[in-house]
Amino acid sequence: MHRLLSLIPFAALIALIATCVSVFGTDALDGATQVSLLIASAICVLVGWLMRRVQWDALEAEMTNKIATCMPSIIILLLIGAIGGTWMASGIVPTMIYYGVQILRPEWFLVSSSLFCALVSLMVGSSWTTVATIGVALMGIGRAHGFDDGWVAGSIITGAYFGDKLSPLSDTTVLASSVSGTPLFTHIRYMMRTTIPAFCISLIIFTVAGLMMDTSGSGEVGFLTGLQATFTISPWLLLVPVLTGVMIARRWPAMVVLFMAALMAAVVAVVWQPTVIDMIATDSRYEGIMRVVYGATSIATGTPSLDRLIHTSGMAGMMPTVWLIICAQVFGGVVTATGVLRDVMQMVLRFVRGTTSLVAATATTGIFCNIALADQFLSIILTSSMFKDTYRERGYESRLLSRTCEDGATVTSVLVPWNTCGLVQSTVLGVATLTYLPYCFFNILSPLTSIAVAATGRIQPKQAK
Questions:
Q1: pLDDT one-digit tens code per residue, 248-266
Q2: Tens digit of each residue's pLDDT (9 = 90 or more) over 393-410
Q3: pLDDT digits (tens, 9 = 90+) for 213-244
């Protein structure tokens, strides 16, 4: 009976969010989804009290702990907002778009953008940084070529998460290997067996789609003319992203890198783009650059589609996302403290029989935790902790567990609208999660590929007897 009651909060959350999406559409994340999470949290508190008489102090402590764990992500998110404003006003992103439109041909754009993001993410070890910098520029190039936002965002996210997953610099890769007790490079090598096939299939889809799409009505000329008329375009501006890459390669802390990237761009904006800052300012250039960092800015270029592209929201534009992250962590805290999440996980384990069902259950649990806990780090930790003993008891090496955790938890986090990853990428790219979801082929295929490989029964690592 307890386990059936444990399903109520999740059923309520799904019903509430589905209703919000149908009523509010893409505006559901402006407040309705946050309220839905709080209502579902209240329902979970009631269920927890009825089942186990859980005390409020325990619930409050767990909620506080969950919110505390996501504070670094919130600060990074605000800094990404600052980068969005400064890299645009300084002409860095417009320069990338200007040269990128001329270099990347429309028919090869989707596959090229995915490969480019994969390479950058592999080197820097961060899908968030890749999307917030290179990804924003590629969105502009894709729009100039006339591609739908969903296709462009899907190709960017596919590449960024592929590179992040295989990078030894990635925090999620290090986390998945460490919590499962697997050596880092053993974990990475074993992931290639499922990751590379999923990525190759994705590249084939993007290649075929790019060759078949008609982008003859694109506004390349209007974009280039508008950019030249508004910004000072120079390859010297690309020194900022180069220096940012150097800082990342030297493994500086993410917050420091993002802060320095925003600061350098702010200085460049004042020096290289004084006309743009004067257009934004109402008093002085100091006031103008501060507005670029923290608030919404609009620049008239004479091309409406370009005006929409270079509009930025700064740190203030990230506040709805911050609000949603906090509400999601409240829900994650109460489902953990009440034991509701544990009950649901035990129901999943009842269906585990052979290797295929074990891998499927692990991947599904990772996806479920992304939905319930709204954070990929918590999903990786919880999934690994739940299945670690089961894998050991059945004679499987830890690398099978670590790989399956990544296939299920890491890459699917960006597909959940209220997950920290989904929130960040949709906010940064300006594309709703449900809009780009159907085109994130690598992220969708990864757990399926993991299950399919397990079903072959030929390459599952067994511990020596």
A1: 778 788 788 889 989 999 9
A2: 888 888 898 899 999 988
A3: 876 555 555 667 777 788 888 889 989 988 98
Question: Is pLDDT larger for residue 44 or for residue 324?
Answer: 44
Maximum average pLDDT range among 43-57, 149-163, 284-298: 149-163
Provide the pLDDT confidence category of residue 463 given band limits of 50, 70 and 90. low
Q: Global pTM?
A: 0.71
Give the relative orientation of helices 376-393 and 56-69 as an angle to the nearest 10 degrees. 100
* Closest C-alpha to 292, from 426, 137, 97, 92: 92
CA distances from 241 to 4, 235, 248, 261, 393 (A): 52, 11, 10, 8, 48
Tokens of 187: 């974990």
**Which of 151, 121, 123, 147 has its CA nearest to residue 133?**
121
- Asked if residue 201 has pLDDT above 90, the reply is yes
C-beta atoms surrounding 253 within 10 Å: 10
The tokens for 409 are 């938890």
The whole-angstrom separation of Cα 400 and Cα 174 is 15
Secondary structure string (H, E, C) spanning the chain? CHHHHHHHHHHHHHHHHHHHHHHHHHHHHHCHHHHHHHHHHHHHHHHHHHHHCCCHHHHHHHHHHHHHHCHHHHHHHHHHHHHHHHHHHCCHHHHHHHHHHHHCCHHHHHHHHHHHHHHHHHHHCCHHHHHHHHHHHHHHHHHHHCCCHHHHHHHHHHHHHHHHHHCCCCHHHHHHHHHHCCCHHHHHHHHHHHHHHHHHHHHHHHHHHHHHCCCCCCCHHHHHHHHHHHCCCCHHHHHHHHHHHHHHHCCCCHHHHHHHHHHHHHHHHHHHCHHHHHHHCCCCHHHHHHHHHHCCECCCCCCHHHHHHHCECCCHHHHHHHHHHHHHHHHHHHHHHCCHHHHHHHHHHCCCCCHHHHHHHHHHHHHHHHHHHCCHHHHHHHHHHHHHHHHHHCCECHHHHHHHHHHHHHCCHHHCCCCHHHHHHHHHHCCCHHHHHHHCHHHHHHHHHHHHHHHHCCCCCECCC
CB atoms within 10 A of CB 39: 16
